[in-house]
Write a structure and sequence with these properties.
By secondary structure, the chain is an alpha/beta fold. The protein contains 15 helices and 13 strands. It has an eight-stranded parallel β-barrel with strand order 1-2-3-4-5-7-10-11, surrounded by five helices. A three-stranded mixed sheet has the order 6-8-9, with helices on one face. It binds beta-D-fucopyranose (FCB).
Length: about 450
């Protein structure tokens, strides 16, 4: 395959999924600390209390990245380590953890990309309404400024939010993710405040930072299950809800015209001035791509009135996601067509499969993940060849980790983690990725 020499090859993780020790060194609890300690919320009652123990084992993990020849590493910062109460006095011991991590990465020649918010809101702010309180935009800007001040020397890319759609759909509409609300009326308010908070952080960065800042969205091309008018309309609604709801305002277009119909009486009136904040110019967009969504009309489903159909003959992952790489090419072409030229990074892409246990000294064979990786890199190459300005790719994930409410039951890592011993073992996919990166230089 041919990619530009400057193309950035990386792997991604998130704080709550790998770090463990959520309350160490003066950190405050986050909504995920609470959620995972609420009976019935997590598969097997799993929590992030230990996870991959990356908080202590980060030198070993950076060494693994170096062994793989990664150019870059995308991680997230836990807000309540920096500001235990969400706002107020900075907890320097929490900041120091990320200083050590960034230093270790730089020493290994790995370029850091940091996400400010990968779902772990300080619990103290949730007590004040969390993403439903308009003040959250100020709180987030205050936190962002503290982090920029401490880490912008070493961090080359900043992502404000990871996946505002999942934060809202999982956290406020259906409740399967923290903070676990299921409320039609809250969802659009949470989304809007997430976007406002993003804009405020971007504005803060222009005054303080010297690198690049953008947002990470998860995009899922919605393909109608049939060519009936009902399914075509359902795919459009689902696309508006999941994809355009976030991208359109980011690019200064306001919300998609479908939104008032989707939310009905729950759709609020938003102050016009908010949209200028939301559309503050950014330097890149991060796209998380896992799957397409073959969509049929389904009035029983809240908001999008659509649901996904199973495609006969397709491979499905352990999270029941269809493997379909060509949609990644289509998605990138669609993005350029709709939003114009913008530097893009694939900030997550990967698959959960149930891998065999790791035997001492062995490589874990994960043929389905290897195939997933190969197909998606080929699909990415096609988009690059067509001239889409994609500049990097981050596989999800470096390590098997806490897959949110699924606990440790879904393994996405290219490196296997034995959660009883914390032993890391390379999977075949990691070695294939390593060789691929080496060959592309
Ligand atoms: C994405 C999340 C990431 C991980 C993958 C599998 O939605 O950003 O943290 O859970 O899915």
């Amino acid at each position: 395959m041919t990619f530009p020499r400057s193309f950035v090859w990386g792997a991604a993780t998130a704080a709550h999924q790998i770090e463990g020790s959520p309350l160490a060194d003066g950190a405050g609890p986050s909504i995920w600390t609470r959620f995972s300690h609420t009976p019935g919320r997590m598969t097997n009652g799993d929590t992030g209390d230990v996870a991959c123990d990356h908080y202590h084992r980060y030198p070993e993990d950076v060494a693994l990245m170096k062994e793989l020849g990664l150019d870059a590493y995308r991680f997230s910062i836990s807000w309540s380590r920096i500001l235990p109460y969400g706002v107020g006095k900075v907890n320097e011991r929490g900041v120091d953890f990320y200083r050590r991590l960034v230093d270790a990465l730089r020493e290994a020649g790995i370029r850091p990309m940091a996400t400010l918010y990968h779902w772990d809101l300080p619990a103290a702010l949730d007590d004040r309404g969390g993403w439903l309180n308009r003040d959250v935009a100020d709180w987030f800007a205050e936190y962002a400024a503290a982090v920029f001040h401490a880490l912008d020397d070493g961090v080359e890319w900043w992502a404000t939010l990871n996946e505002p759609w999942v934060i809202t759909d999982g956290g406020y509409l259906h409740g399967g993710l923290a903070p676990g609300h299921a409320n039609l009326f809250e969802a659009p308010l949470a989304s809007h405040n997430l976007l406002r908070a993003h804009g405020r952080a971007v504005q803060a960065y222009r005054a303080l930072g010297k690198h690049a800042i953008g947002m990470v969205v998860n995009l899922e091309p919605k393909v109608p299950a049939s060519d009936t008018a009902d399914d075509l309309a359902a795919a459009r609604r689902a696309d508006a809800y999941m994809n355009r709801q976030y991208l359109d305002p980011l690019f200064g277009r306001g919300y998609p015209e479908e939104m008032p119909d989707l939310f009905g009486e729950a759709w609020p009136r938003f102050p016009a001035a908010d949209f200028d904040v939301i559309a503050a110019p950014i330097d890149f967009v991060g796209i998380n791509y896992y799957k397409r969504g073959v969509t049929k009309n389904d009035p029983s489903h809240w908001v999008e009135r659509a649901s996904l159909v199973r495609v006969p003959g397709s491979i499905y992952t352990e999270t029941d996601w269809e493997v379909h790489a060509p949609a990644l090419t289509d998605l990138l072409l669609w993005f350029r067509e709709r939003y114009g030229a913008m530097p893009l990074y694939i900030t997550e892409n990967g698959a959960a499969f149930s891998d065999p246990p790791a035997a001492p000294g062995d490589v874990v064979e994960d043929p389905l993940r290897v195939q997933y990786l190969r197909e998606h890199l080929a699909a990415l190459e096609r988009a690059v060849a067509a001239g889409v300005d994609v500049r990097g790719y981050f596989v999800w994930s470096l390590l098997d980790n806490l897959e949110w409410s699924h606990g440790f039951t879904k393994r996405f890592g290219i490196v296997h983690v034995d959660f009883a011993t914390q032993k890391r073992t390379m999977k075949r996919s990691a070695l294939v990725y390593r060789d691929f990166i080496a060959a592309s230089r």
